[in-house]
Amino acid sequence: MSDPRSKRVQRVERDLFETLSHYLLHGLNEPLPCHASVTAVEINPNLRHAKVFFRLIGDAKEVEAGKEVLLAERHAFQKEVARSTSSKFCPVLRFEFGTAEKRDEIDVLFENLRKPKFGD
């Protein structure tokens, strides 16, 4: 079965995912109190609005603080998308959060990617 979304919508979602993931890792002004990752981006067909899904890992207090940081940074994420997009419209971002109590193997791999390598 084929995907009902157009190739253009799929491409824009993929580009947004990459831009937002990179900004999450390298552009935040404030460190996150929990582990976070962008898990998906869904954009509506007219490319005006996008939902960004985050996965936050930590205890309830860390996750709540992480949500606050990300929501406070939403305009910075929006600005980064506007700067990097080549489309006519810049979609308005809406954040959705999912949580996990503990890290799984993928989370450990992502965490190790962020650690500086020996000699850096």
Describe this structure in words.
This protein is an alpha+beta fold and 120 residues long. A three-stranded mixed beta sheet has the order 1-2-3. It has four helices and three strands. The protein has helices at residues 7-26, 60-72, 74-84, 105-114, and strands at 35-43, 49-57, 92-100. Strand 1 (35-43) and strand 2 form a beta hairpin.
Please provide a brief summary of the model.
The protein has four helices and three strands. It has 120 residues and is an alpha+beta fold. Helix 1 crosses helix 3 (74-84).
Content-based structural category: alpha+beta
**CA gyration radius, whole angstroms:** 15 Å
Residue fraction in strands: 15-25%
The ordered H/E elements are HEEHHEH
Give the tally of β-strands: 3
Distance between the termini: 47 Å
- Strand order in the largest sheet: 1-2-3
Number of helices: 4
Low-confidence stretches: none
In helices, the fraction of residues equals 40-55%
How confident overall, as mean pLDDT?
84
From the spread of the alpha carbons, the general shape counts as globular
For the largest beta-sheet, the strand count, sense and barrel status come to: 3 strands, mixed
